[in-house]
């Protein structure tokens, strides 16, 4: 988990780790990054997609199809997966993420949380061992954030390596194995889940260990969601 205040370098570091820097962003990259015991610079163009999956802050930026089923299948088509195997993986991906109710729905008619769920489901078809997510809770309401949290929990249970850049920690704090805190582009601390207390949060300026960072509308949605669950 990568965290820090806005501008601390979370997204930049994540983009270095997943190869978007310098592949898509024009900048100079010093040092070495290895994925699956292979230097990132040694991967051929497009090859990295067989090793890692990406979920962007706004999933609309990575959608190319209208319907969820087509969107989830497209990664397998790009990787040249055979029809029968691809069909089986798409079925399994929707089932594993409890997203079958969205399978034939237009992505343009989905809520923010549903779009993030489809973006995560998309990564399962390629069956990558590593998944990078860039602030997946951005602009989501309370219920949608819980949907993302449940999806990440399932992926972790499957043994996936998950790297999340996020300033909100309350919804994933019990999933964290290692927390890297950034400030002005530098690592200032590395914590375990046990180290993540209110005291350390105050020390490093982390203001998102609880739900205090929710906006007024998100808090209202939370109250309504909890009330609906009790009815």
Terminal-residue CA separation? 36 Å
Work out the helicity level: 25-40%
- Largest sheet data: 3 strands, mixed
How many separate helices?
8
Q: What is the succession of H and E elements? A: EHHEEEHHHEHEEEHH
Named CATH topology = Rossmann fold
Number of strands: 8
Task: Tell me the radius of gyration.
Answer: 18 Å
Number of domains: 1
Low-confidence stretches: 216-231
Inertia-based shape: globular
Beta content:
5-15%
Q: Mind telling me the CATH superfamily name? A: P-loop containing nucleotide triphosphate hydrolases
User: Biggest sheet: strands side by side, in what order?
Assistant: 1-7-8
CATH architecture annotation name: 3-Layer(aba) Sandwich
State the secondary-structure class.
alpha/beta
Oligomer: single chain
Level-1 CATH class name = Alpha Beta
The average pLDDT is: 86
How would you sum up this structure, described in words?
The protein has helices at 10-17, 20-23, 68-78, 83-96, 112-126, 142-157, 198-203, 216-230; strands at residues 2-3, 34-35, 38-39, 52-55, 130-134, 161-165, 179-183, 186-191. It has one domain: P-loop containing nucleotide triphosphate hydrolases (Rossmann fold). By secondary structure, the protein is α/β, with parallel strands linked by helices. Strand 2 (34-35) and strand 3 form a beta hairpin. The protein has 8 helices and 8 strands; from the N terminus they run E-H-H-E-E-E-H-H-H-E-H-E-E-E-H-H. Helix 3 (68-78) runs parallel beside helix 5 (112-126). The protein has a 3-stranded mixed beta sheet with strand order 1-7-8, with no helix packed on it. Strands 4-5-6 form a 3-stranded parallel beta sheet. Helices cover 39% and strands 13% of the residues.
């Amino acid at each position: 988990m990568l965290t820090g205040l806005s501008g601390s370098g979370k997204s930049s570091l994540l983009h270095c780790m997943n190869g978007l820097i310098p592949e898509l962003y024009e900048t100079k990259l010093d040092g070495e990054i290895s994925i699956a015991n292979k230097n990132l610079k040694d991967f051929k163009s497009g090859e990295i997609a067989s090793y890692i999956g990406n979920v962007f802050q706004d999933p609309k930026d990575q959608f190319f199809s209208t319907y969820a089923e087509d969107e989830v299948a497209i990664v397998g088509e790009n990787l040249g997966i055979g029809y029968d195997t691809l069909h089986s993986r798409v079925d399994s991906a929707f089932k594993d993420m409890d997203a079958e109710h969205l399978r034939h729905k237009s992505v343009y008619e989905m809520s923010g949380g549903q779009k993030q769920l489809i973006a995560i489901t998309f990564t399962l078809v390629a069956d990558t061992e590593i998944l990078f997510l860039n602030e997946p809770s951005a602009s989501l309401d309370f219920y949608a954030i819980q949907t993302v949290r449940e999806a990440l929990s399932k992926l972790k249970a499957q043994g996936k390596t998950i790297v999340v850049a996020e300033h909100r920690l309350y919804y994933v704090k019990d999933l964290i194995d290692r927390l890297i805190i950034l400030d002005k582009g530098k690592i200032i601390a590395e914590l375990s889940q046990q180290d993540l207390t209110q005291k350390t949060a105050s020390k490093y300026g982390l203001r998102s260990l609880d739900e205090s960072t929710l906006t007024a509308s998100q808090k209202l949605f939370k109250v309504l969601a909890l009330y609906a669950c009790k009815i």
